[in-house]
């Protein structure tokens, strides 16, 4: 499970990377926003199972740090249990969600929101229910988002998706924002390492 990234709120919202994720969305109502999890289908539980595990892990991170210092064998045993839980979480996810049928797409992602290409335009202020799957960890996050811009991209890579939509997360759980922050910072570091290894022209 991922550790909590201790970044200032301002930096969490503005650190942004280009990434490939699985993204699904639909228009939602303010009543659905108020209902929150009660409105989600049964498949949402398996989609977000790794995010739920990570939230629990974050809560007990200080305890685990103490165990690693004073009870190494017990800490190792708990890590082994975590690995087993990860395997079970992957199995639960795969039973309800076929990754081969969930195509990835390029997005610009931060803890405050994301942007993506779309086939049809969306009006500013439109409320969306958004399902975001972070790869390769298969960490699923379900939240709501508000459309903050929509523009036509004449120079897009794929003419089937001529619109670029920017959304701001709405009422996102702090634990989910932390997970996105960790993912973004890790992706940023990985991209920096890859660039440093590229031969200079």
Helices and strands in order:
Layout: H1 9-14, E1 17-27, H2 30-35, H3 43-47, H4 49-59, H5 61-70, H6 72-96, E2 105-109, E3 113-118, E4 127-134, E5 139-152, E6 163-170, H7 174-197
Report on the structure:
It contains seven helices and six strands, in the order αβαααααβββββα. α5 packs antiparallel against α6 (72-96). The chain is α+β, with helices and mostly antiparallel strands and 201 residues long. The chain has a single domain, classed as predicted glycosyltransferase like domains (Thrombin, subunit H, Beta Barrel), CATH 2.40.10. 43% of the residues lie in helices and 26% in strands. The chain is globular and about 60 Å long. The protein has a six-stranded antiparallel β-barrel.
CATH fold field value: Thrombin, subunit H
Please identify which CATH superfamily we are dealing with. Answer: predicted glycosyltransferase like domains
| Backbone CA Rg | 18 Å
- The tally of domains stands at 1
In spatial order, strands of the major sheet run 1-2-3-6-5-4
State the low-pLDDT regions, or none.
Answer: none
CATH level 1 name: Mainly Beta
Provide the structure class: alpha+beta
**Percent of residues in beta strands:** 25-35%
Mean pLDDT: 85
The biggest beta sheet, please? 6 strands, antiparallel, barrel
Residues in helix, %: 40-55%
């Amino acid at each position: 499970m991922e550790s909590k990234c201790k970044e200032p709120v301002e930096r969490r919202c503005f650190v942004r990377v280009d990434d490939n994720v699985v993204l699904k969305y639909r228009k939602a109502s303010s009543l659905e926003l108020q209902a929150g999890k009660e409105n989600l289908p049964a498949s949402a539980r398996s989609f977000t199972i790794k995010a739920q595990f990570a939230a629990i892990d974050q809560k007990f991170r200080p305890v685990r740090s103490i165990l690693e210092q004073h009870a190494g064998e017990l800490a190792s045993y708990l890590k082994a249990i975590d690995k087993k839980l990860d395997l079970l979480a992957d199995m639960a996810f795969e039973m309800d969600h076929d990754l081969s049928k969930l195509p990835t797409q390029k997005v610009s992602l931060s803890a405050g929101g994301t942007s993506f290409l779309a086939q049809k335009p969306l009006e500013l202020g439109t409320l969306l229910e958004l399902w975001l799957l972070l790869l390769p960890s298969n960490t699923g996050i379900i939240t709501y988002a508000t459309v903050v811009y929509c523009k036509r991209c004449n120079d897009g890579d794929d003419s089937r998706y001529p619109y670029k939509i920017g959304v701001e997360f709405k009422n996102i759980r702090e634990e989910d924002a932390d997970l996105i922050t960790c993912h973004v910072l890790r992706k940023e570091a990985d991209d920096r390492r890859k660039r440093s290894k590229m031969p200079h022209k």
